Structures are given as structure tokens and as C-alpha cells.
Amino acid sequence: MLAPERHELILRSLRRHGRLRVAELAAELGVSAITVRRDLAELDTAGLLRRVHGGAVGTTPAPGRSSQSGNQPTIGIIVPSSTFYYTDVIRGAEATADRYGARLVLGVSGYDVAVERERLEKVLSIGVAGLLLSTALGDGRAAEISRTLDSIDVPVVLMERAFGFPDVGREYDHVRTDHAYGAMLALRHLVSLGHRRIGINLNASVTAYWLRQGITQAAESLGVELFISPVALPARGEDPTTLAQHDKFLAECEAFGARAALVHSDEHAARLTERAMERGLRIPDDFAIVAYNDETAALAVIPLTAVCPPKLRLGEAACELLLRKLRTPPDQASATQHLSLLPELRVRESCGAALADRI
User: Fold this and answer.
1) N- or C-end of the chain: fewer Cβ atoms within 10 A?
2) Cα gap 36→83, rounded to integer Å
3) Where is each HTH deoR-type domain found (predicted)?
4) CA 287, 289, 295: angle at the middle one, nearest 5?
């Protein structure tokens, strides 16, 4: 199929659906995603559509949208990563912005504070009306970026961060996952299966700050014995050092009398599962595992029970909150909101799924 033919089909599909996604177009047209992206770039340059993250939308808002042509608000979104956890957060924010007729501009920091400052300056320099922000540093290190944060002169909604006084100079709207509740969900499930001693392994991440709080609360309320291992589990690899780390954690669990573990994140839990099986352990009969994040947990060699944060809904809720603030008249300023969204537990074979559930 020649490019002009593809372009006509793309525009026809856009008129019909109002929005296009690269993966769906590639399947529909029978071409590669790279070819589709090239086509979208050419049509964007010609002013026939507007490229957005993952696809394209029309050049004017669809009928029924609240915004008017030529009055499209632009909002920035700065995140530490555009992959894995934040992919769905971005998708949720993008879908909401598109629904309200707003334009989203993305900046990715790579968990680097200096890069984050550059991305902030670039996004703010184009005159965004507001900002969705998930900082490179987590809640335990808010004071280190307070000056940068407090200097932003447009409305800000924090995502997966809960900064407040005295670490920063003013209170910020935020939408975050209640990860402490997520830890409680996982441990409560393990306790319901009869486990009274449980090993914990946390990836060195921002999420671990909140997971530790939930784990401490769970130990008290559930009356179980827990230990948080200092072993840094690798997510992949077959070299002796990698295997030794897995073996060390499994040995810690055995010495502690733990026949179950909560592991953050999916990749770490999946590789631990494989190593446990290589050592002759049956999952979940000899050793039960719950993963945290549920990005790839279902694809493990034994599907992993996992806590799933509401990533897509988080992006939607944060963008909705920001857009409502932008539409509120100055003399009717809305109250600052702190929203916590609850994760859910998805039970699979690695821990607690009944045989009937596996068929």
C-alpha cells in the first residue's frame, strides 16, 4: 500500500473515531509501527492531525467538548519515566486531557534531579497553564527540591508524591496510591492462607518509602512476624553473583521460618520464583510469593499474585483535578485536595489461587 493510500485511510479512521492509536493502526493497515509513526508525522506537519503520545487526534476538539477551537489549554506533565509504572499514568492523563480538549506536553527526568529541573524549565517556558508533576525524589527527600517546587508559578498537582509543610513552603494538591494499604492487602492475604512469618524484599525505589509504613502497620494489626531483608534482589541475570543474591534471600526466609514473601517489584519476584523452583521449591506449596506493581506479574513462569496500583486512574484523576482548578474563577478558588487511591490484589497461582481459578 502506497503512502497516499495509507494517509487517506488514516484520516478516514480519524474522522470516524476522533482518536487513533499507533498499535491499532499498524494492525489495521498491515504495516509496522515505525511506518505508522512516519505517516502520522507527515500528516501532523501538513496540519491534518495532531500527534499525541501513542497516536493522534484531530486538529480541533471533537463535538461536545468543553473547550473551543483556538482556546486549547496546554498542561505539562513531568514524570521520572515514560515506561513501566508511568506508562499507564501518562495514558490516563493523556486521555483525560484529550477529553477536555487540552494539550499535554511530556517531560521525562529519568529520576535525575538536574534533568528534572531542565525539563521543568523547558515545559514552563512554553507557557503551560498548569503542571502535573511526579518528582525524581520521593516523599522522604522533599526538602531537597522544595525551592524548585515552590518557585513554580502555575497550578501544580503532584502525582504519587505527598509533599507538605514543613518540607515545602505551601500545600499542594496531590493524587497518590495508598501503597501502605497495598502492603496491608498483600500481607492480609498471606495471613489468610495461614502464613505467620513472612519475608519482605523491597526494591530501592520511591514506593518502598510507603510500603515500609504499611508493612509496619500490618505487622502490628495482623499479629505476624516479618523481616525486611537487606539483600538487593536482581531482576534478571544468570551470573554467580546474581544467583547468590537470590539464594541468600531464600536462605534468610528458611532461617526465619518464612514460607512466604512479599517482593517489590514484578521482575524481582518473577526471577526469585524461577530460582526457588531451580532449588526444588514448589510454588506456592513450599513457598508463596506476592509481587507488587502488577505490570508483568501475570507473565511470570508461574503467574504471580500481585498488588496492582490504579496507575491509569491516577493519571486521569490528577489531570481532572488540575483542569477543574484551571476552570475555576480566581475569586472562587477551590480547596486544596489530597486524594489517595486504593490498589487491588489480583490473586494468581503463586499464592492462593484455587485450582478452579487456573483452568
Assistant:
1) C
2) 20
3) 3-58
4) 155
Contact yes or no for 14/22 (Cβ under 8 A): no
pLDDT tens sequence across 18-72: 778 888 888 888 888 888 988 888 888 777 788 877 788 876 544 444 433 345 7
Tell me the CATH number for domain 3-57.
1.10.10.10
Domain 74-178+311-340 carries which CATH code? 3.40.50.2300
210: Cβ–Cβ under 8 A, 6 or more apart, which residues? 139, 178, 179, 180, 183
| Chain centroid offset of residue 237 CA | 24
CB 308 within 8 A of CB 82: no
Give the total residue count for the chain. 359
Q: Which residues pair with 305 in a beta bridge?
A: 290
Query: pTM of the entire structure?
Result: 0.76
CATH architecture of 179-309+345-358: 3-Layer(aba) Sandwich (3.40)
